[in-house]
Imidazolonepropionase (Tepidibacillus decaturensis), 416 residues
Amino acid sequence: MLYIKKAAQLITLQGHSDTPAIKEQMKNLYVIENGSVLVQENKILAVGKDEDIRQQFHEVIDKAEVIKAENKIVTPGLIDPHTHLVYAGSREKEYVMRLQGKTYMDIMNEGGGIHATTRATQESSFEQLYMETAKRLDVFLLNGVTTVEIKSGYGLSLEHELKQLKVAKQLNEDHAVDIVSTFMGAHAVSPMFKTNPDLFVDQIIQEMIPAVAESRIAEFNDVFCEKGVFTPEQSRRILEAGKQFGLIPKIHADEIEPYGGAELAVEVGAISADHLLNASERGIKMMAEKGVIGVLLPGTAFFLMAKFAPARKMIDSGIPIALSTDANPGSSPTFSLQFIMNLGCLQMGMTPEETITATTINAAHAIGRAKEIGSLEPGKKADIAIFNVPNYLFLSYQYGMNHIDTVIKSGVLVVK
Ligand code: NIG
Ligand code: FE
C-alpha cells in the first residue's frame, strides 16, 4: 500500500466521471488542503483530509510505504488526448523555412510536411519506430503524463498504418504510459493518389478501415479535414465508414482555415473535434449543444505562428474543453503538457483551474477513459502526479519547466 501524505493541495477533480466538466464546472478542482491518498495495488483506495484518512485507516497505514507530499501538490496523472508519437525523422529544416516565411501548407503541398514524415516512417522498421517512440513516452512520463492517445497517419498504406498501430499496441503493453490508439489513415492524401484523391478515400474505406477494425488495434478514427487535404464530404464518408466498424469518430477540424469541421464533428457524432482555430460561430454553437469535446492544441498555433483557438468563448458557450500537445515532428514538436497549460492561460484566456481540468478529467473524456482515470477518486486507477510546487497556480505560472517530483502509474512508483 502507498500512503501519499499530506499534500499542500490534493486536486481531486471529483464528480465528473460520467459527463465532462463544462462552463463553471471547469473551474472547480475540488481541492483538499493537507490531503492524502491511499493506494492499494493499482487502484485508489481513499482520498481525503490527512487527519480523516489516518483516523479511518490507522491500522493499515502503519504498514504502508509513505510518500511525503508536504509543500507539494498532488493531481491525477496528466492525460494527453491527441498525439502523433509514432514517427521517424524530424523536420527542423522545415521549421527554418517557416521562419523565413513559407507556410505549413506550402511545405506540405511541395511534398514536405506530413509527406516527409510519412516517407521516413514507411522506411523505418517496427523496431526503430518502437525504440524512438518509447523514448518519447519516457519524456511524457517524466513530465507527469500517464496516458496518451496516439494516432497513426504517417503510413498512408495499410501495411505502414498497421505497423504504426502495432508499435503503439506493443508499447501500451511494455511501457508504463497507457496508450489509446486512433487510426488516422486520412492524415494526408498518399502521393500515389495525387491526381485522384477519391480513390485513396475508397482505399481507406474499403481496405484500411475493415482491416484495422478486424485486428482490434484502434478505437478511434480521425481525419484531417482541411482545404487541400480531405474535404468535409470525403471526411464524412471516412468517419461514417469507420462507425460501421465500431471506430469512434474524431476530427482535425478547422485548423488552418474555416471548413465546416466543427459542424461535421457534430453531424457524425464525433467524441471530439480537435484544433478548432478557425471554427465558425455555428460550429461552436452546435458543439456546445451536443457536448462534443473541443480538444485544443495551442502548441500548434504557437509553433505555426497562427492565431489561437477561442477557448474562452468556447468554454463560455458550454463546450467541454480538453488540452493536448498534438506532439508531432512538424506542427508541434513538444512533449510538455505543462507548457500547453501555460499557453492555455496566456494565449487562449483560460484560467489555471480550467487548464488542469482540461488535461485531466476532460482529457479522459476525450478518449473515452473517464470512468477509469482523470480524477482522484476511490476505485479509479492509481495514476498520480506529484508536483514540487506550493499550489496549483504554479503549474501554468512558472512556465517552460517541468515541475514533476514523483509519478505513480497504476500504483507503481515510476518517477521519483
Ligand atoms: O495535428 N494537422 C495535421 N496533423 C498534425 C500535424 C502533423 C504533421 O505536421 O506531421 C496536426 O497538426
Ligand atoms: Fe494532430
About this structure: The chain has a mean pLDDT of 98. The chain has two domains: 2-77+375-415, 79-366.
